[in-house]
Structures are given as C-alpha cells and as structure tokens.
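Hey, I was hoping to borrow your eyes for a little while. I've been staring at a protein lately and its backbone has me curious. You're getting the sequence in one-letter code plus the fold written as tokens. Would you mind checking whether the tokens look sensible for this chain? Here's the protein in full, and shout if anything looks odd to you:
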Amino acid sequence: MKAKGTASGPQILVVDDEPAVLHALELVLGHAGYRCVGCESGGRALQILDGPTPLDAALVDLVLPDIPGEQVLAAVRRLRPGLPLIAISGFGGEAVERQQDLEVDAFLAKPFAPSALTALIREHLGCRQT
C-alpha cells in the first residue's frame, strides 16, 4: 500500500467514513510532513493493521459504517501495541466521557482546528518509545 502525499515523515493510519473529512485530514497531515494511509471503513483499517504497512500512529473516527470504531481501536491495541492512537468523533460528549474506557491516547471532537490535530500528533509521536 502506498501512502498518500509527498511527505517523508512518520506514517499515520487515518480512518474516517466521510470522504471529504478523510481528504481534509490527509491534506492537513501531509502539509505538516506526515504520510497518510487513509481508508473509509473499519474493515479496510483492520486489513491494513493486520498487514505489513509500517505505521507510526492511528487516527480513527468512532462512527464507521461497517463496524464500530471501538472495534478498530481494540484491533490497533491488539495488532500494533504501543502505536499512538487518537480517536475522533462528531459526537464528542459521550466519547470524551468514555476516553479512558476506549484506551486511546487522545480524543478530538469534530470539528477541530488543524493545528490542534498536528500538535496532538507531534505530542504523541514524541512520546512514542521505539
């Protein structure tokens, strides 16, 4: 699988079922120097996670059309332990309350500023132990 963008920095799995949102996330992260592997479904995310694609972080929408985002989060923890994991959702209040239960490193409620996303990614990549 080829990452989108021309950046040569860390590679991030980006999962969002809304094509326009996915594209915007890829643009923001690409401009910040990250490579993105984007997908619009939880099923495709699971295939990527179970494959050889190197990843440095994951950004996962909690509401996906095929499987619950929580299942994708659990798969990240199982298949890629230690991978920085950020959950995003337009249904912020409930997800914020459940952040600890979701076992994510961070949560962003949509809409969010591009700078908030890139700062969070930088923060968690800087903390990653390799």
